[in-house]
Amino acid sequence: MAVYTEVTDEALAEFLSLYDIGTLTAFRGIAEGVENSNYALKTSEGDFILTLYEKRVNKEDLPYFLGLMEHLRAHGLPCPLPVRAKDGRNLKELAGKMAAITTFLPGVWPRHIKLAHCEPLGAALAKLHLAGEGFAMTRRNGLGPDSWSPLLAKSLPHADSVLGGLGAELQAWLAQIEADWPKDLPVGQIHADLFPDNVFFLEGQISGLIDFYFACTDILAYDIAVCLNAWCFENHAELNVTRSRAVLRGYQSVRKLSDSEINALPVLARGAAIRFLLTRLYDWLNTPEGALVTPKDPLDYYRRLRFHFAVSGAGAYGL
Amino acid sequence: MAVYTEVTDEALAEFLSLYDIGTLTAFRGIAEGVENSNYALKTSEGDFILTLYEKRVNKEDLPYFLGLMEHLRAHGLPCPLPVRAKDGRNLKELAGKMAAITTFLPGVWPRHIKLAHCEPLGAALAKLHLAGEGFAMTRRNGLGPDSWSPLLAKSLPHADSVLGGLGAELQAWLAQIEADWPKDLPVGQIHADLFPDNVFFLEGQISGLIDFYFACTDILAYDIAVCLNAWCFENHAELNVTRSRAVLRGYQSVRKLSDSEINALPVLARGAAIRFLLTRLYDWLNTPEGALVTPKDPLDYYRRLRFHFAVSGAGAYGL
């Protein structure tokens, strides 16, 4: 929910004159996306999204994100297509921020996850992975395994204020995840944040995958582990195996998992759970009292992590 | 900037089935409007706005607001038209809130006010006043003169924390405004909150007036006074007379002001300034420290009020 940067009429008009997308007919801030300012832009040619990149996004990563979307779209994935300005560039400056226009995607993200969403989700994720092949750029996962220990260190002094013993438990769990982390799994371009609000559906089909601003080059199956955490839990504690089986079935209908990928699912799921637990814990401890935007409860992911540690093998996910 | 209520897919689908506006193609939260939850709704038939009324809006006022928009639109004003459901009603329930669908209006609200906006603004306001004639319902101005004293009383204990002596100064000013308040000016349906973010322009013309949720039945010229405050000041302290003259010229090109209305402009402008000063002061003193939404500085309207008290007659506004 976010519009952080106001754009004046003059600046907008000047910005749009750099593009060949018709004349402006409407411009409204969108209350979605937490990292950037997003506007719905309507012109005589159709609907677009204007994104201004705020300080949490590293400018140097923008060519990767925009290039990846362009590559994925060219390879058939329904993701936003960055629109190139008259000079051929897809990244410009507006109101003192880096800015891009992308195409508008129809669809609605599911507020209630249903089983019927899960197989299409898995298939779309596998398509994303295949479509990413051949993309020449790479980006290190800024929230990958080597970031978790420093992230935990920042929250450690106050972790037990959230739950008694949480700090020590997370240290022990993290040490085990780091020791078990797989080294030789297939790597490629991953979304790394494919939560329900980033997946649009229309009449039961996936109509759009959005928000590639955590995308990076990392273990493909880790992206599945993120989705199992984000889409398949009930009450944050219990895996709905019917759903996770559907995600995996959808995925494998497009890209077959190797035995090593399947065997790594539990540790990847633990890793994905601790990644979101750690960022939420940090936000929880560092959001001022009384802020109107309530940080997400980190314990939702603590419960998931506990589940993944009780699991003895990939069978628990329905394989 | 606001989406307070989440709408599930199922609830949305059921809600839309009550209307005859085509099939859903997109649904996004809008980051504008502070009182209600607003969504941009796109269907096979076009663009709409879905509004969920949050607790700051009194349910009993909704038939007035929606009825007024329908009346104004029928009389040629470019305001949102409430869409009637199949059963003929324009007000329904969704996600536990009262909800309405209105038509989408093109245009962009001016982030930078320019002289060229002011004459069309004045003319549009007068058209609103004329279009409101014949509307049978009335609504008391909940933020009218009789609300100001109780509102000030709530902020008085802490007013001086904002500016030394502010409390006593406001008490004295308010007493004078109350004593001078005009009794016999023409009354009708007024917008009462026609700030720049409620006025859309397209190619120099007004394409839409929105957000009628402060509308009420009150002194017509008070609406002009609100606009003079909202559109014609520079640095919150200096009236730009060229702009205020343009607003008044635009207004009078459609509806001629009487001598009594003209003579009352200074006290009406003082009243409008103290109304926004008092609500902002209250929000300022009652917004928790560190909240992500910064309340607006009440002193912006203190400076305007000071200007209006230094004025000896309507000539100061360019008449």
TrEMBL record, chains A, B:
Pathway field: Amino-acid biosynthesis; L-threonine biosynthesis; L-threonine from L-aspartate: step 4/5
Family matches, as InterPro entries: Aminoglycoside_PTrfase, Homoserine_kinase_II, Kinase-like_dom_sf, Pseudomonas-type_ThrB
Gene Ontology annotations of biological process type: threonine biosynthetic process
Transmembrane regions: none
Leading EC class: transferase
E.C. designation(s): 2.7.1.39
GO molecular function, one term: homoserine kinase activity
Catalytic activity as recorded in UniProt: L-homoserine + ATP = O-phospho-L-homoserine + ADP + H(+)
UniProt KW Hydrolase keyword: no
Keyword Transferase: yes
Pfam families xrefs: APH
Residue ranges occupied by any Aminoglycoside phosphotransferase domain in the UniProt entry: 27-256
Keywords: Amino-acid biosynthesis, ATP-binding, Kinase, Nucleotide-binding, Threonine biosynthesis, Transferase
PANTHER family attached to this UniProt entry: AMINOGLYCOSIDE PHOSPHOTRANSFERASE DOMAIN-CONTAINING PROTEIN (PTHR21064:SF6), AMINOGLYCOSIDE PHOSPHOTRANSFERASE DOMAIN-CONTAINING PROTEIN-RELATED (PTHR21064)
Family named by the database record: Belongs to the pseudomonas-type ThrB family.
NCBIfam families for the chain: PRK05231.1 (NF003558), thrB_alt (TIGR00938)
Protein known as: Homoserine kinase
Organism of derivation: Acidocella aminolytica 101 = DSM 11237
